[in-house]
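hey so u asked for the seq, here:
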Amino acid sequence: MQESNERLVMATKDRMALRASALTVAGAGTLFWVYTFYGIAQVPSGDGSGFQWLAVMPLGMVFLALTLPALVLAASGRLLWPSLVLGCLGLLAFALLWKQLLNEFYH
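ran it, structure tokens below
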């Protein structure tokens, strides 16, 4: 009986750690997405057309398709592994997109 309780405690601790990891990754993606608005606002306007704000669209799509579902799933405590994977994919997509956008903005 005690062995069963120990397993339950370990499973609960593992689940809490996985949930914390998923929430951290999704939270980092959310904070980065919010930062991108500030980052885009700092870009020199160039010809004054405001076309640099078009970069908000792909960044928003990454947030809506990957980061937000990861955040909702992790916050609700369901599907923690898929939530962690979605959050990591979102961070990767943000990094690749942001790198490309910085090349476009400053070259």
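The longest helix spans residues 2-41. Residues 91 and 97 are 10 Å apart (CA to CA).
lmk if thats what u needed
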